[in-house]
What does this fold into?
Amino acid sequence: MAKKQATALAEFTSCIDALPHLSGHYFELSPSVIKKIGGKISIRLICTVNKKVSWQCGPMALGNGSAYVTISAKRMKELGVKPGDKIHVSLKKDESKYGMDVPVELAEVLKQDPEGKKRFNAMTMSKQRYVIQYVSTVKSSSLRVERALLLIGNLKKLKPGKESLREMMGLPPR
It folds into this structure.
């Protein structure tokens, strides 16, 4: 049976702009787009630009009822766009559990470590996504295993509910 395709919550045209407070780029979601996606920004989305490139994302508050989604240099290159260019955006609700794909290596560590899995599942979604992202960012499978073991091993040493991402990485608390 084929997977049911989610219908777009919103389709619109936007312009790529530079993030004033960080290096990188974004496009804006107007208050009317925010209303179409449910009236809040605490939602995970699948963003498709110019019907070519899709990724999982979460809007960030911009002020005045607007929000933004970042767009990486790699995605801009794939799309052949630059700052100032207009783009077509389609937003669908992300139905995945974490709002991103879990690396096989992390899934295996959690499968083999019931206590680690319990502690991981007890964390906030944003911290879970951070762990998933941190493990995912390296290309080497062996490094992904090392990162997963480090984070989950350190997580089990921390007081439940007081998990610090720095301490999970083996860094001293601030």
Remarks:
- The longest strand covers residues 10-18.
- The chain has a mean pLDDT of 90.
